[in-house]
Every structure is written in C-alpha cells, then in structure tokens.
Design brief:
Blueprint (H helix, E strand, L loop, with lengths): L13 E5 L3 H9 L6 E6 L3 E3 L4 H5 L9 E3 H4 L6 E5 L2 E5 L4 E4 L7 E3 L2 E4 L3 E3 L17 H19 L4 H7 L1 E5 L3 H17 L13 E6 L10 H13 L3 E4 L2 E6 L2 E6 L2 E6 L2 E4 L3 E3 L2 H9 L9 E2 L5 E2 L2 E6 L4 E2 L1 E2 L4 E2 L4 H19 L13 E7 L2 E6 L4 E4 L1 H14 L3 H17 L25
Parallel strand pairs: 1-2, 1-9, 2-5, 9-21, 11-12, 11-17, 12-13, 19-22
Antiparallel strand pairs: 3-4, 6-7, 7-8, 10-18, 14-15, 15-16, 20-21, 23-24, 25-26, 26-27
C-alpha cells in the first residue's frame, strides 16, 4: 500500500521594522517582493513628512497635509503588517523586540530586524527647559508650537501695558540649522501677512524675532556663502540674528543669553528649540549589546552594509546610525534623503540574505541640501555642492522638490493648493488654537469711551 508523506510548509522569515519614518517605511517597501513577512512597529499611526513640519507650526499647513496613515501606505503590500506600539528595548541575543504595555503581544520574535527609531530633542543637559522651549519633531510638537505662537498675539492684544505687549510679541528661536532658520523666517511672514489686519489693539507687524546660534554661522551643513546669504535674508525680514550666542537659562517669561561673557535677559513667553538632536535610547542599548561605542548623541556605529557589528541579521538606519562616508571623509548626514536611501539598502540586504546572497555596502548619493527663509528666499547646495543656488530660483526648486517627495496625490494636491492660496493672497487658513487646557489669559481691557 502506498503512503503519502505530507510536509509542513516552511515558515517565511519574519522581518521586524522599528519606526515608520523615512528610513523604516523605505525598508518595509523594499521588502515588498521578498519571501518574508514584515511587521512595522511605530508609536504613531502615521508617516510624517518632517521637512514641512515647521509649516504646520507656523499655520501654513494643516497637520493632515503632511501626514499619511502608515496602514494606507502599505495597504497594497500583502506581506506587511502594521503594529501600533512603543518599543522599549531590543533583546539582540534572543532576537526579540520588547514592547511597552499595554501592547499585545509584549514581545516580537524576529529573524531580521531593521531599526529606524529616529531622534528626539537635545537640551544639552538642561531637560527642564523642554516645558518652556518646545522642539519640533512630531505633529503634536507642531500643533503645540502653533498654539504658543498664536496665543502670544492673543495675549498681546489684552496686555495691560505696552511693555507687556512687547514681551508677548517677542519670539526667540534657538538653533541656526535648517529648522531654526525656517521657523525664524516664517514668523515675520505670519505676523505681517495673515495677522496684520486681524487685531485692534496691537500691530502684529511689531513682532520681534531673535534667532540665537551658538556657532559662528548659520546652516553649518551648507557652504559658508549660503549660510551668510541666509543671514542677510533673515535680516531683511527683520529677524535679529545672534551668532556666537549661548542660551544660559529659559523660564516661562524670559530667556537669558550669554555672548562674550556678558548676560542679556530677553523678556518673552515664546521660546522655540531647534538647537540639537539626540538619538532614540535604542541606540545606546544596541551599542552596549554589540560591544561598540555610541557617539555623543547616542547613535550606534554600523558596518558598511548597515548591519550591527557581530549581528548580520540586524540593521540600523536613519538618525540612529553612524554611517561612514568615505567620499567625504566623514559620516552620512542625518537627513531625510539619507534615511530613505539607507532604508532601501537595508531592506534589499535582508532580501539578499533570505536568498543566501551576499549583502551590499551602502553608498550615499548626496542630492544636496536646501533651506527656505521666506517667500522667494531660499538657499540650496546641490549635487554635492557643485551647484549653489540662492534667492527665488532656490525657492521655486524647494517648493517643487517638497511637493514631489510628499506621499500620496491627496497630500500633494492639498499642499499645492494651500501654498498657491497663501502666495496669491498672503493668508494662512490653519490658524487654529487647539488647547485642551487653555492658559489663563489677562482680562481684556474695557474699550475706551467714545
């Protein structure tokens, strides 16, 4: 008698991707046709186009314009599952991702792991400043900054004295990188454009913006002439640029600056932090388990193929990784294009390992860096610095590039319409103050008798 032997189907290797940002999403999508199952874990349910986050913070765009649900992005990828959860650690030896309560299951076993957990604000040992000087990393941060900006004008409208109104109309931005420059350039446009005719007791155009940078110039990642051009453009907008100036203290009603050993107290209730980044705590944990030394911001060094030393099944990409850049004699910058390229390479390397092929080293292609200062004002260093553009041409290029990189037709169309309306009419439609616990505002002064 003949007998039939049945075999159990072989389980597809399980790939866990931590983070739904540029790097993590690119890695998951790179595994679309690989014979694996993918689980992408993120604490938020949406992918955020972070380069335009400052536009939400300054009421230029609505939060939904620059975010898209991760499940929607991966809806046509049958081998991918999205899990909303907070990763608290990784057990490298046991190949397990440990999730914070109340997420179920509490652990995820993996065959391959791609970590793209990103970064957060750094206050250089002064974490207590965070309550009075919010940074800009998430949609919640942007909505909170928008609330603080708009609320400052409301408080100025009912301030009891001109000095109190001036303090409310003083805005301090800390950090001269792209985020700081873009925030500082947009506040005057908000005050002089959309708000200029909407108040009766104050003139929003009196708003004073200080941009504070501890280093000797703005935009240090760009060539020095472009940093100087950005400084001149900001000055033309009325921004008071303070180079070589350090923040010594931040309180709810003031910020203390120090330059050349001299202290200056600036009365303000609105301080915005764009001065530093630190990697997710996962970076230090991974470095410790792999026996490598993290850098001063907590990023973990990786090998040429983006894997962790001694662990060919584990890849680290984006803001969390220190990646050598031999062509420049340094490391790959923590920017969105680099994260996307690294995510694709990590996903491709996992697919190669599954098929018993050798991994490939990551080679970063520098497409350039840009920063916008205001309407018709931008600077761009393209093709590895070989092409430098400033002014209206760089501004139009910046607009086109950011619309092209947005995910989804709806987001592109919405941003294009919002920008077109603002360009033609100088108005911003996202000027909503959203606050679950409104701050106590002064009682409005009675109207003067006729």
């Amino acid at each position: 008698m003949l007998t039939t032997r049945t075999s159990t189907p072989r389980r597809a290797p399980h790939v866990v991707v931590i983070g739904g940002g540029f790097g993590g999403l690119a890695a998951a999508r790179a595994l679309r046709h690989a014979p694996v199952t993918v689980t992408l874990v993120d604490r938020a349910n949406h992918h955020l186009f972070r380069p335009l986050l400052y536009q939400v913070a300054t009421a230029g765009l609505a939060p939904s314009d620059i975010a898209v649900p991760i499940r929607h992005v991966l809806r046509d990828q049958p081998n991918a599952t999205v899990l909303l959860g907070d990763v608290r650690d990784v057990d490298v030896a046991g190949r397990r991702v440990l999730l914070a309560a109340p997420c179920e299951p509490a652990t995820l076993s993996y065959d391959y792991l791609i970590v793209a957990a990103g970064s957060r604000h750094s206050y250089f040992g002064h974490d207590a400043w965070a309550a009075d000087a919010p940074g800009l990393k998430t949609l919640a941060d942007a909505v909170e900054i928008r609330r603080r900006l708009l609320d400052a004008f409301e408080r100025a409208e009912v301030a009891p004295t001109p000095a109190a109104a001036d303090a409310e109309l003083t805005f301090v931005v800390v950090g001269g990188g792209p985020t700081g420059v873009e925030l500082a350039g947009m506040i005057p446009e908000l005050a002089r454009g959309a708000l200029r005719r909407e108040f009766r007791r104050i003139d929003p155009r009196r708003a004073r913006v200080l941009l504070v940078e501890a280093g000797p110039r703005l935009l240090p990642a760009l060539p020095a002439p472009l940093g100087e051009r950005a400084r001149r453009d900001l000055a033309a907008l009325g921004v008071d640029v303070r180079l070589g100036t350090r923040v010594d203290d931040v309180t709810p009603r003031a910020v203390r600056l120090r330059v050349d050993g001299v202290d200056e107290r600036v009365s303000t209730s609105t301080v915005l932090w764009a001065a530093g980044n630190r990697a997710s705590p996962l970076g230090i944990s991974l470095a410790r388990q792999a026996g490598v030394e993290p850098d001063r911001t907590g990023r973990v060094p990786v090998l040429a193929d983006l894997s962790l030393a001694g662990h060919p099944e584990l890849f680290v990409v984006g803001d969390l990784a220190v990646v050598a850049w031999p062509a420049r004699g340094g490391t790959v910058p923590s920017v969105a294009p680099a994260a996307m390229q690294a995510g694709r390479r990590a996903g491709d390397n996992v697919a190669r390992l599954v098929r018993s092929r050798a991994t490939r080293p990551f080679a970063y292609v520098d497409k350039g860096e840009l920063a916008t200062i205001g309407k018709h004002r931008a600077v761009a260093s393209l093709f590895g610095g070989r092409l430098r553009v400033a002014g209206w041409m760089a501004w139009w290029f910046w607009l086109a590039l950011h619309i092209a990189y947005l995910i989804g037709f709806r987001n592109r169309l919405s941003v294009l319409l919002q920008w077109s309306y603002a360009y033609l009419f100088g108005d911003r439609g996202a000027r909503l103050i959203i606050d679950d616990a409104p701050a106590q505002r002064p009682t409005p002064r009675p109207a003067a008798a006729a």
